[in-house]
Amino acid sequence: MARQTVKALLNSTEKDIEVSISAWVRTKRGSKNVAFIAVNDGSTPHNLQIVVDLEKMGEAVVDKVTTGSCIKAIGKLVESQGSGQKYELEASSIEVLGEADANEYPLQPKKHSLEFLRENAHLRFRTSTFSAVSRIRHTLIFAVHNFFNSRGFYNIHTPIITGSDAEGAGETFNVSTLDKKNPPLTEEGEIDYKKDFFGKLTNLTVSGQLEAEAAAMALGKVYTFGPTFRAENSNTTRHLAEFWMIEPEVAFNELEDNIDLAEDFMKYLIAYTLENCHDDLVYLENRIIEEEKNKKAEDRQPMNLIEKLKFVVDNDFERLTYTEAIEILRNSKPNKKKKFQYPVEGFGTDLQSEHERYLVEKHFKKPVVLTDYPKEIKAFYMRQNEDGKTVRAMDILFPGIGEMVGGSQREERLDLLVKRMEEMHIEADELWWYLELRKFGTAPHSGFGLGFERLVQFVTGMGNIRDVIPFPRTPKSAEF
Ligand code: 4AD
Ligand code: MG
């Protein structure tokens, strides 16, 4: 008999049929005569109830069926008497595939804190919350490729090990093959990286953008979707040391086209999830509603999860310049104390997350696109404006998240790029190939980077970025 999934059985159009299921036990309860076993196989947030007639089958059959064990059940799919599910399985045979000692199994049939589950990252796939997040994460990955493929973009794999620090922020993880305890030294007594595998010190990539630009200067429309690594010591609910980024890069696009692309892309991804992950979203929404009950009324989210996602799909993002945003912030009274922790002095102030959140959550109450930042607070590759002060940058800020997207029109003029690199003390020798893209057949082009985990966080409503990636890498934690 073919093995079926819990999802297929719960949505079955036939009943009173013989079926087989293999799944993990969430709970077991019952009396002397009957046992009810709730199982899940990761196909849906709902469990399937298996009913075992102990009088007929003998009590011993469920002895080793405990929370966490894995079983195979064969039986008849019948309409459920109780409320909740449409169907249940009347077992005719139960086989324990893998036992789990109830005294040792870390997941009890009760609600565990997300912190506890993080420490048991190898088992948290077995919870309804994390499996719902995992399925939504998968759906979003699929939607990313769908979107770009349908628009004629090519997916480019950019290197993981690289010699450049694309963002110039110096937050790289070094990669070296030299003997750490006894490295070869130069005559000056410094570590001799010429003897390293690549003949120089390399690092894990912080962004695939520069290589994507090279591809866009021939293929026109490209995107990357890969892991990126940042050694920033940020212990926040929005930062990971290893995260996945999607970076489209488009020849001939100017900043406005870039913003249009980003807005269309994000709306598509969210709409796709609403269409394809309804059960999981309802499950996560109910989870949040329960959590919110413990909060004061003024701290509660203004919208439920699904309503919030639909709102983003149906409404235009707000677009304004950095300078306009600074004016709004200077004239704002953000809280009872009427000031921000970090004062907004005027042009040149780098926006802190409290400022970004004020703009999206209190002032505009929707996603906000900020453009034309001061060049001093942005990367070397952004196209300089005529005013000599600002660059064609764009950041997209989301309620509850802050910065979700960072992008720009790129500086395609060789002389201006070289001058900017000099000002920022970036060695032209290190990026000779990047400069050649401007020397030979340069063209206007733009792109952006979307932090995939921040998107998954927004779509699932999870408060901590560590709960939307299977094995989070953060400062002082790489257990798994
Ligand atoms: O703003 P960032 O640093 O931009 C770039 O890397 C550009 N090269 C992108 C481009 O134009 N192609 O990073 C882009 C996005 C951020 O907006 C944020 O969503 C996410 O990546 N991000 C992080 N996500 C999780 N943990 C971190 N430590 C992150 N740092 C950035
Ligand atoms: Mg950024």
TrEMBL record:
Swiss-Prot/TrEMBL keywords: Aminoacyl-tRNA synthetase, ATP-binding, Cytoplasm, Ligase, Nucleotide-binding, Protein biosynthesis
> Which biological process, per GO, is one annotated for this protein?
asparaginyl-tRNA aminoacylation
Catalysed transformations (reactions): tRNA(Asn) + L-asparagine + ATP = L-asparaginyl-tRNA(Asn) + AMP + diphosphate + H(+)
Q: Which CDD domains match?
A: AsxRS_core, EcAsnRS_like_N
List the InterPro entries. Aa-tRNA-synt_II, aa-tRNA-synth_II, aa-tRNA-synth_II/BPL/LPL, Asn-tRNA-ligase, Asp/Asn-tRNA-synth_IIb, NA-bd_OB-fold, NA-bd_OB_tRNA
Primary location group:
cytoplasm
Question: Record keywords: Protein biosynthesis included?
Answer: yes
Give any GO molecular function from the UniProt entry. Answer: ATP binding
- Tell me the compartments it is located in: Cytoplasm
GO cellular component labels: cytoplasm
Q: How does it assemble?
A: Homodimer.
Q: Which PANTHER family match?
A: ASPARAGINE--TRNA LIGASE, MITOCHONDRIAL-RELATED, ASPARTYL/LYSYL-TRNA SYNTHETASE
Q: Which NCBIfam families match?
A: asnS, PRK03932.1
Q: Which family does it belong to?
A: Belongs to the class-II aminoacyl-tRNA synthetase family.
HAMAP family per UniProt:
Asn_tRNA_synth (MF_00534)
User: What name goes with this protein?
Assistant: Asparagine--tRNA ligase
Q: Which organism is it from?
A: Acidiluteibacter ferrifornacis
Q: Which gene encodes it?
A: asnS
